[in-house]
Predict the 3D structure of the following.
Amino acid sequence: MAARSFGPVIVVHGGAGKVAPDLVEVRRAGIRAAVTNGLQLLTAGGSAVEAVEQAVKTLEDDPAFNAGRGACLNRDGEIELDASIMDGRNLAAGAIGAVKRIANPVMLARAVMEAGGPVLLVGEGAGQFAAAVGIAECGVDVLITKRQRARWATMREDNAESVGTVGAVALDRTGHLAAATSTGGLLLKAPGRVGDSALIGCGTYADDQRGAASCTGDGEAIIKLALAKTALEFLQNGEDPMAAARRAVGELTARIGAEVGIILLDRYGRIGMARNTAQMACACIRNDNADPELFD
Ligand code: GLY
């Protein structure tokens, strides 16, 4: 049977949580740029994988988001980045955890996926892999912003800015889905801690037969409920994407009580999103509509 064309559709999130007032507009602009960059690839015939990689890379390059440049610092004042990507066409997946000198972790995750060996590489081994595939390390000064250094220095665990993680899901013209997620993790996290954003099924999942999902929020809670895969199972059982997203977040809230958010896309290009936090900046573009729809 010939492949049906549905897309392109792309949805992007910039993390669930409470945003400092001075960052609200900056982050809206960043989300808008990310979803637009992803759509441009899809419109030009690019794949869903290329689109989610480009959207997440855009947010990693934007210091207003907790991913790549601008990521939060761990207990030792260092950056340790997690990211993952998945291709719904063939269930190919790649992830990296606790990398310290990679400007665009989503690109490294994609390289891991394309290599077709291990799905998850962490720490020094991930750095060695990056060198082997020609992804150069950057200085930590490129990644650590003054804002994040100041947050770490004051050690305010209950501060006004606690958002984390960026992600994207996309459906391309050939009907294939993909998802990607990238994060600096949690402020003051334990060195070596790897969160849901590096774990397939937890922070990221994509399967053409089910849908695509990217999560944000408390990584430990997301891991315990394998939130991305759980939400896609609700989809597969017949719920629409919005209901599936809400049910997944509701179940996590009831059973674990942590702050999370999720974006979903089904194989027909229908969108779902849910959060139990004050804010989760999201944007989507459906079917070549050039104007992004923005959600807080
Ligand atoms: N969701 C990001 C993290 O907990 O690392």
